[in-house]
Amino acid sequence: MSALQTFLLVADHDKQEAKQIAERIAHDVENKKTTLIEVVQSLGEYINDEDPILRGKAVSYLTAVIKALPPKFLTRQQIQVLTAFFCDRIEDGGAVAGLETLQKLDRFNKALAEEVAQAIFGRFQELQSRSQSQRFQVYQLLNELMLNHRDALHEMGDESLVGIVDLMTGEKDPRNLMLVFSILKVVMVEWDISNHAEVLFDSVYNYFPITFRPPPNDPYGITAQDLKDRLQDCIASNSQFAPHSVPSLLDKLDSTSPNVKKDALNALIACIHAYNADVVSTYSITIWDALKFEILNAQEEFLSELSLQVLRDIAARLSEGVTEISDQLPLAQYLRPITRECNDQLREPQQKQAKPAQQILSSTSAASAVSFTLVVRTMVAPLLTFYQEADGIAKQRALLETLVVLFDSAIKVFGEWKSSDPEPTMENPLLEFKDQFSEIFGQALMGVIKEEVSFRTSALKGLLRLSTLRNYFQDNEIGLFVQYLDEILLKEESIGRDDLKKEAINALAVISKHTPRLIMDITFPAFVATLPETDDGNGPNYITTLESLAQISIEKDIFETLVRRLLSKLTVLLQKEQPGSAEYPRALLLTILYVMNQRDMSKDPNLDLYYDRIVVTLCRSAAATASGKATNNILADATVLDILGRLSNLIVRSLPRSKQDEVAENTYTLFASAEDFSPVPFAPSTSDSHERTMILSTYLLAGLPADTAKLPHTHPNMSALLTDITNRSITSSESGEPATHLAFLRHSALLVNKFLPKADLNLATDTVFTLLHQITEQQTPHTTGTIKAAFWLTKALVLRLAPKTTDLLTSLLSLLSSPSPQTSTTASRSFSILLSDDDILSPTNGATIRLLSKQRVFTTLVPLISTRIRDVNITNNTTPNQQNPDHIKPAHLTALSGLLSTISPKLVTPELPTLLPLLLQSLDLRTADSDSLAVRAATLETLAVIIRDNGVSVIEECGHVQSLVTRLLNTTTTNNNNSPRLRADAVKCLALLAAGQHSHADAPAVARAGKLSPLLPVKNQVLRALRFVLDDPKRDVRKAAVDARAAWLRGVDDAPEEED
Amino acid sequence: MTTEIQNSNPTILSDADLPTRLRPTEAAKSSAYGSGLFASTLSFPGDSVDPASQYLSAESESEGDDLLEEPIDEQEIYDLISTISDPEHPISLGALAVVSLPDISIKPTLSNVPDSPLRTVTVLITPTITHCSLATVIGLGVRVRLEQSLPSRFRMDVRIKEGTHSTADEVNKQLADKERVAAALENGTLMGVIAKMLETCQ
């Protein structure tokens, strides 16, 4: 059997084998064992066979052999003969592939390329009746010719153009179209198309709009967008298409489908970018006439935005190369009807279409400096006239806003402040109106009655834009504006929501970033001058002033000046014998804290100065105050100490290590000498004001690095210090002040969590167990204080996931079952301590908070609480007994709510089946004290999050819809001791239940067909009960009820009516 | 059901100029650390320095404020209906001035029985143009919203403001006739339009 025969046999089922046969023959040809002529001759009996498949295979054989030959083997003559042979047989399978191989060879020339092209155009008249893959092969060959022999095709001119168009007409497969569009684009861009523009345009425009939707799991990965992009490139490829493309695309705007309109607008934008400017000019007014309607009567916002972009892009194209402005410019002619229309619409600036008219002005004027100048020249004068003639402030306001729109465009075109972008050479046309604008906007801001807030706000925004605009307002003009703002902030009473004052502050903050000098010279002195020497009892006006100062002190110079001025005010206050109330010095410190919080203090060059003046000096003064050696008692106030502590903490954190060591040594001495002040730890006797300095010590400690070695009383270990602080926290719980008590608790927790070495952790654990023992054996006179101390120490330990975490938690939980109601209640309330975020024991302060600690606490405690409550429920049902007094169940529920309020809802969801029954019981809690209110409030908050995140389905899965709804409704009534907040929260939970349903309704109808809402059985009950809530005495509750009823009416569908 | 837009360019009031209720500012219950900027930005623990103290504060705060009754007033009615959208434009009835605060009144239904809790709400509607055929639909929308949102002791009286509509009497008769209102609400298409109007209610 010959090689050919074998090839014909295996060609279908073993491609690899076939290829090897061909390679073998090619090898023989190469080694002159046989000749190419013999190979061709061997085909003889098959290529004339009647069976096209057999013919195809025979031709493929030749192709395969040629493919396997080295590229330079064939002579020019051989190529010629083979090309002629393949062209002759082009309709047979394999010939196209053979030609593709041949045309890649170096010796393949232009004339041959033309011959091939003619064969393709001449012989494939019925191409579209062939299979997709065959068509693809032909396009592929054509594409290769385009790449390798474009000259040949180009010289064929109209012949190739018409040939290609005829060839692809009727093509529908997306894979082929991708190729066809890119072939056609070459023709469109490079051929002379003047005789066939319309034919060529139609050949692609027939496919507009693309409605192709790829099948699921499409292996070819062609999207509708890919096709749209290529088609759009074709449409935009040649200006000669404009007479056909522009009208056709504008026609498509009549379509009812927003997507078709969107494609048409996008294609139009592409055309405007690509066509010659004079072509764009020819159609500019036609396009405007068509788009006007789209913008003025916008149906979809994105269509109006695209239309506005078209208008702007036309203006930008027509501005190209324009250096001198005249009325004869194509741009001027284009803008004329546009400005005329806007002018008409803006005569009634409050009407609906005034807004789109503003947008049109905004887009066209922002296109270029020329465009801006033309718009300003035609629009500003009439706008000013309308303003003068306007018969009401609301109308004037709308006109001011229109001007502000133009100012925004000016900023886009000419830049802002002292920006370094190159400036347009053209002069800003607004300059000629500068005096008028100053007058009108100044008058609008300051010259009308103070209550016209929205009008004045518009004026303020306008002046801010003009100040921002590059090279527009001089410094003295901005200065005048700044004075207006100062006056508004300092002299005017507040009105309503104080919107104007808020805008004024924002404006000053913006100005202070760019021209800090004006703020320093004008605003700063004016504001500081209103600060009193002492709190003179005239009300806290200084708070507003300080807030304003804090917000404008962003820029470095202003910040430094502010801190210096406030510190000297404070220093003066500290030396006065009659300093007034402590609120003022506290506000001063608070302002400094606020501005320092806004900056990165570790990079501040003046950090050392702040350390000296604030941390060292003021802490020392506080120590002196505590020893009774100060002129006044400002620094004995707990809240002042708290702010000073926070401020010191912030500074200490930023200090270099050496200074931090210095702070560590002075944590308890507070930088005072031994004879002036004795530290609180280990002091034999203390007073309230002495103990209060622990607030400062705690903040200083919190700011120190965890590995500091200089902390006093920590060698050989901190056992003694810890015991002392813990004992003081216990005794101060009753006799001391709350702030001092908290400072002790935090101090001990901080020591254990951050500074206690791992090896010494048993010191703390043992302390907790000792305390718990004292409580259960009633060995301590200070039960409450001891419980608190135990919880804070446990908090410190569990956050770092110390060993025995589970033991500690279990022991704390057993306090709840104490026979003493007081112990049980106090402990139950304290569970919220464990996981609540704390300002001192925080990540910012470097506390050790392990990622899984919260989860660990929660998953340890919840099952225990659940089991205990179930036990109590069972035993109480059978026999009321002494072991389970009444307070135990509420205590456990309180503890649970304390935990829930301090952990993220994400952790709650997995525990839902256990948790939900407990939450429902919490809603039933009706103990007399206020605990039940807090518990129920926390429960409702948790429920709200659960419902919002998971919808009603999770509750349905647990089978609790009815019982939940009933309990929620019980909580909405005004009896049962339900506070307004509880009532509103319960109603909101109900609303959330139904709101989740609503989003279900968006699901495809098939998905929910036949499935009734799980809420349907309770719908009537809820609607009826909520009707009463509509009459609640509290407005917030009523509002929530209105929303909830709307959600249920809208979201919970009734069962479909039975259809016969 | 909508064919041609009847008034394509109505006057619109700016949001900032619509009447709103001024909530008593938080200043009333400012904490020890001031009320405004500082307190909010720095997340001060304020009074609740001790997390366990929420039980105590919940008790103290619940008393004073909560006893104060806030009766339903005109502003509340306005807030209920001003966010309904116009069937022609995606613009609220408030912004179009179709409903306005001075045109809402609440009066005792039985003026000779002072203790009666019954109240009548009167809402006068001002159509944007005098021949607006959608006036009835707007009136129905307002009615439906009020019926869904007010307690049962309130009676609704929704009417076209005098002199603002060419067939005001006809429309008023329709809106006042319970049977006709009920019949209208059975109409699926009409209810669809009204549901769409009410979707924007906040």
From TrEMBL, chain A:
Residues 545-994 form the MMS19 C-terminal domain. It is found in: Nucleus. It comes from the Eukaryota. Keywords: DNA damage, DNA repair, Nucleus, Repeat. Its main location: nucleus. Key component of the cytosolic iron-sulfur protein assembly (CIA) complex, a multiprotein complex that mediates the incorporation of iron-sulfur cluster into apoproteins specifically involved in DNA metabolism and genomic integrity. In the CIA complex, MMS19 acts as an adapter between early-acting CIA components and a subset of cellular target iron-sulfur proteins. This is MMS19 nucleotide excision repair protein. It comes from Aspergillus campestris (strain IBT 28561).
TrEMBL record, chain B:
Keywords: Chromosome partition. Pfam families: FeS_assembly_P (PF01883). Residues 74-152 form the MIP18 family-like domain. Residues 1-20 are annotated as: Disordered. Residues 1-12 have a biased composition (Polar residues). One of its GO terms (biological process) is protein maturation. Transmembrane segments: none annotated. Coiled coil: none annotated. Belongs to the MIP18 family. This is Protein FAM96B.
